[in-house]
Amino acid sequence: MNRSSLPYSAQDLFPKAPIGNGNNVAGSSSILGGSRTIGMAHNSTSTPSSSSAFAATASNSATSPIRRLQKFLRRLFRPSSLDFETAIWEIFHLVLNPKKMYRSHYYRLQGKASYTRDDPAFLILLTGFLSLSAIAWGLAYSPRMADVIKLVGYMVVVDFYLTGAVIATLMWVVTNRVFNGSFAMVLPISSQQSHARLRVNYIDWGFCFDVHCNAFVVIWGSLYVVQFFLLPLLNVKRSFIALFFGNTLYFGAIGHYFVITFYGYNSLPFVSGGIGARQLQTIVLMGVLPALAIAWLLSICLGLNVAHLMVETYFN
């Protein structure tokens, strides 16, 4: 494969719009987000055989999320099948070089039916790191063991899993409506035509949650680890240094979360280098990041120490 076709190898955050009208060619195959589908022309003159083949492919792929979940759960209880080495490599590069991580992810998953992880090693490691961090916070700042257990449950279950599920669901709906105009959350199970429409440029919910997990690594590193060691400094009241570095740490971590999220969705073949990538770029670079910068500046001007506020919220 030509290197220029890889995401972030040439276009990175400033992708160029594709040349041509962007219509799919009938009979061509491509990997689209969650499944391998057959592109169809936008006219309605397709032959019955090609329509039947497409509907059959879509119908078979409709059950693939369940199969992938079963495979994921089976590997969860088979430690010998888990690839912790790759998971550690991914966590390391998500902090230092997320573009390299997604480029490697693109290479590794070529030819597979989904871009969703089928190896729970990454999720196990991240959950373990979050749990250890929460225990350290609890032992340092909570007076009772019951409070430590509550803190672990809140930081891991609520902050990571429940919040991630909400964000993944929101992104699943929004991105599918943007990149697949015929997407609907509720479709007749017996309708092959509805299944066929669903599989065009379809993005799996699992992929959206994977993107959240990838982006949450920087939240863990900044707010669970770095803040833990700097908290005696960041929690000093009426200190401009504590105010500046604490707020910068929080808003910087949140901004990095959105940047890695952009990298994740831009790694999809039908998004990278096209109008969709430009839309995502506009939202992140001209919407989210400027809003975070304004919020950071206002918090500094108003003397609102975000680190102190979060510690008061968690530890009363």
Overall mean pLDDT stands at 73
The total domain count is 1
Order of helices and strands: EEHHHHHHHHHHH
Most strands sheet? 2 strands, antiparallel
Helical residues, percent: 55-70%
Number of helices: 11
Relative strand content? under 5%
**How far is the first residue's CA from the last residue's CA?**
55 Å
Uncertain runs are: 1-63, 186-198
Radius of gyration: 22 Å
Structural class: mainly alpha
Outline:
globular
Strand order of the largest sheet: 1-2
Task: Work out the oligomeric state of the chains in this entry.
Answer: single chain
Please report the total strand number as a whole number.
2
Family: Belongs to the unc-50 family.
Main location: membrane
Keywords: Membrane, Transmembrane, Transmembrane helix
InterPro entries: UNC-50
Which SSEs are present, and which pair or pack?
Blueprint: E1 29-32, E2 35-38, H1 48-62, H2 64-76, H3 84-96, H4 98-108, H5 121-141, H6 145-179, H7 192-198, H8 205-234, H9 240-266, H10 275-302, H11 306-315
Helix pairs in contact: 1-7, 3-4, 3-5, 3-8, 5-6, 5-8, 6-8, 8-9, 9-10
Notable features of this structure?
316 residues, 2 strands, 11 helices, two-stranded antiparallel ribbon, mainly alpha, 3% strand
